Structure formats: structure tokens, C-alpha cells
Amino acid sequence: ARVAYTQQKDQSSSLAVQLRESTQNFESAHQMKETYVQELVQVREENRVLQERIRGMKDSETEMEQLNQQLHSVKIENQTLKGTIYDYQQREQALEKGERRVTGIYDQLIKNTRKVENPSLYN
Question: What was the pLDDT predicted at 120?
């Protein structure tokens, strides 16, 4: 009976050691799980922030593309206006040249008329 008692006591001690080790392993695993859950929450938050930044960058990129298109349109309009200004300058120069010519012809006509009216003044 003593041998059976000793064996049961040894077995109980062995089971108690195994239970302590299993409990420690469980607690360690539970602690690791808690750490992983905290890290997961942190990584998800970082991911959310990065996604917002990416969205902001995409919005900025879209805005830059729109501004670039507007700039291109303004440059085209500017070229058109420069062409129009050049056309008007050419017309203005032609009108000034024509005006000088008409003035010259008019002056000559007046001079000729005076010659005809008073030929004695021009001899």
C-alpha cells in the first residue's frame, strides 16, 4: 500500500508540475495573443492613415491634372489672343499706311486745285 501511495504521490507531483507548466504555457500564449491583438490594432490604424494619405495624394494628383489641363487651355487661348492682336496690329498698320496715302493724295489734290485756280502763284 505504501508503494501504491508513493507512486500516486509521485504521479500527482508529476501531474502538478505538468499542470503548472501547461498553465504557464497557456498564460504565455494568452499574453502573446494579447500582444498580437494590440499590434494588429496598431497596424490596422497605420494602414487606415496610409490609405487616407494615398487618397489625398490621388486627389492632389487629380487636381494637378485638372490644373495642367486648364493651363494648357489658357496657353492655347493665349496663343489665339496673340494671333488676334497680331492681326489687329497688321490691320492698324495697313489703315495708318492707307490714311497717310489718302492724306498725301488729298494734299496733292488741294495743291493741284490751287494751281488750277491761281496758276500765276505757281509759275
Answer: 78
